């Protein structure tokens, strides 16, 4: 082994170990926050059972991705008993499934709002079975859509760009649905419908506002992660590569941490936008 190779290996050791510790901390914090969030969500019972289940599942996808990434890091370090080609393929499939199902979460929220707006009675009476059916189709679809990337039929870059573009399409559709919900609420108020209809109309509008912040936050996360991926995909330098991977995982943890705090949702959104700007600045000054 040459002296240059020894020096490079030493550099890798000194900055890789702290980054692995940071990743482990991110992972643990994200899991604890996820458990706390779903406990709070179901204990308060503020929203319809279908929506509560969807909000419970929403952070599950980035949590799956975090777990798969963490397992890949362990395998990359070649811990005895972990590293094998078969296990690596399985974890790659889990990672791709988590990434795709994260974007499909946006489609689930659109389906939820469509049914809540135009089939209100069905939506109210089917909780949480409607959400269970939709979520099952989501993960089955994510597994099938992940196969081409796992087996090399579609490269990672193409998948990332398609998913990022799909996120913006879902945002536009969701925005149109939210506008429709506001107009429908105004119509219900003018028609002086029953108390039950007016209550459901207010509930739909309130849920739509919450999900709007969630969609905005997710779009920020997904765009930042795609930007990080673009740099990582074309990077030949291991040191910035590890730093960028850690930043991307920080975004995944932030995604799990807190967009559900209803009382502070505007502050959370502003904080996320500020964090996005800060990390992009760090990215381009590396």
Automatic annotation (TrEMBL):
Transmembrane segments: 21-42, 54-79, 130-154, 160-181, 210-235, 241-260, 267-285
Key words, A-Z: Membrane, Transmembrane, Transmembrane helix
Signal recorded as keyword: no
Protein's name in the database: Uncharacterized protein
């Amino acid at each position: 082994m040459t002296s240059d190779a020894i020096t490079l290996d030493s550099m890798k050791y000194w900055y890789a170990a702290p980054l692995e510790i940071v990743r482990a901390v991110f992972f643990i914090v994200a899991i604890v926050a996820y458990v706390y969030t779903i406990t709070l969500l179901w204990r308060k019972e503020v929203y319809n059972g279908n929506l509560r289940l969807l909000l419970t599942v929403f952070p599950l996808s980035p949590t799956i991705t975090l777990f798969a990434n963490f397992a890949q890091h362990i395998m990359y370090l070649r811990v005895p008993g972990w590293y094998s080609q078969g296990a690596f393929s399985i974890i790659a499939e889990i990672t791709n499934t988590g990434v795709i199902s994260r974007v499909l979460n946006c489609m689930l929220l659109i389906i939820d709002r469509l049914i809540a707006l135009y089939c209100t009675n069905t939506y109210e009476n089917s909780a949480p079975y409607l959400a269970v059916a939709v979520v099952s189709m989501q993960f089955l679809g994510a597994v099938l859509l992940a196969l081409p990337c796992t087996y090399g039929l579609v490269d990672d870059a193409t998948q990332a760009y398609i998913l990022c573009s799909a996120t913006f399409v879902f945002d536009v559709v969701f925005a149109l649905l939210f506008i429709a919900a506001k107009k429908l609420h105004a119509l219900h108020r003018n028609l002086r419908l029953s108390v039950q209809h007016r209550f459901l109309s207010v509930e739909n509008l309130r849920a739509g506002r919450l999900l709007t912040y969630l969609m905005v936050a997710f779009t920020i996360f997904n765009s930042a992660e795609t930007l990080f991926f673009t740099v990582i995909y074309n990077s030949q330098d291991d040191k910035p590569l590890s730093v960028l991977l850690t930043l991307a995982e920080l975004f995944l943890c932030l995604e799990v941490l807190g967009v559900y705090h209803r009382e502070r949702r505007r502050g959370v959104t502003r904080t996320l936008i500020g964090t996005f700007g800060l990390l992009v600045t760090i990215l381009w000054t590396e």
